[in-house]
Specification:
Blueprint lengths: L4 E6 L2 E6 H59 L2 H19 L2 H5 L2 E8 L6 E3 H8 L8 E10 L2 E10 L3 E12 L2 E10 L7 H13 L1
Parallel strand pairs: 3-8
Antiparallel strand pairs: 1-2, 3-4, 5-6, 6-7, 7-8
């Protein structure tokens, strides 16, 4: 039963130790090694976790800064003044479609100017009202709009779609007047595609010669 023994020295004395004890000792050593390895692994994981945590904390900060920039950018291009000015332009298209001329002309300054599509159409409010009131109105649906604000002045350009004329463009200026945004100038035009610009301008030249 003791054939499988290992010799070990204790203070110069050689002693025969059963193999089962040696195995137990080896197992204990292996357990210690495993525990040490586990400890190192846990330490590495903890350090890695701290690093990941630090990176995770950095990411939301960067994201928040980006979001703040985006929010600030949106606020810059859509502040309360610009929202109010955009509403004025929306109402302008609505009232012209309804031929509600009292409300329509209330959106303009008294010294406002309307520039129509014909070269001769540069009208003050009295002339423009004289032209507009007998009509049943006109419809222009908003497609795209840009606003640029300089203090109490807002410049705008917008693409519109007209059932009668197709793609149209409105440009102009609004001025804050007595706390409200009023249209100082509105210019309606028909954008000409570059591919047919010479053809159209040739027809305009010919019409002007008649």
């Amino acid at each position: 039963m003791l054939k499988d023994t290992h010799a070990f020295a204790v203070k110069g004395t050689t002693v025969n130790r059963p193999a089962i004890m040696s195995r137990a000792t080896n197992a204990s050593r292996a357990t210690c090694v495993n525990r040490a390895s586990l400890g190192l692994l846990l330490s590495a994981l903890m350090l890695g976790g701290l690093n990941v945590s630090a990176q995770a904390q950095d990411s939301p900060t960067q994201s928040a800064q980006t979001q703040d920039t985006q929010v600030q950018g949106a606020a810059t291009t859509s502040n309360p003044d610009q929202q109010a000015a955009a509403q004025v332009l929306d109402l302008l298209n609505q009232y012209s479609s309804d031929a509600d001329w009292d409300k329509y002309f209330a959106l303009y300054r008294q010294d406002g100017i309307f520039i129509g599509t014909d070269a001769s159409e540069r009208w003050g409010m009295a002339e423009f009202e004289h032209y507009s009131r007998p009509t049943k109105g006109w419809r222009y649906d908003l497609t795209e709009r840009h606003l640029i604000q300089h203090g109490d002045v807002i410049l705008f350009d917008e693409l519109l779609n007209s059932p009668a004329y197709g793609v149209s463009r409105g440009t102009g200026t609004l001025i804050k007047t007595d706390g409200n945004w009023k249209i100082a100038q509105y210019h309606l035009s028909f954008p000409i595609p570059n591919e047919i610009a010479k053809q159209i301008t040739a027809e305009i030249k010919a019409a002007n010669k008649q």
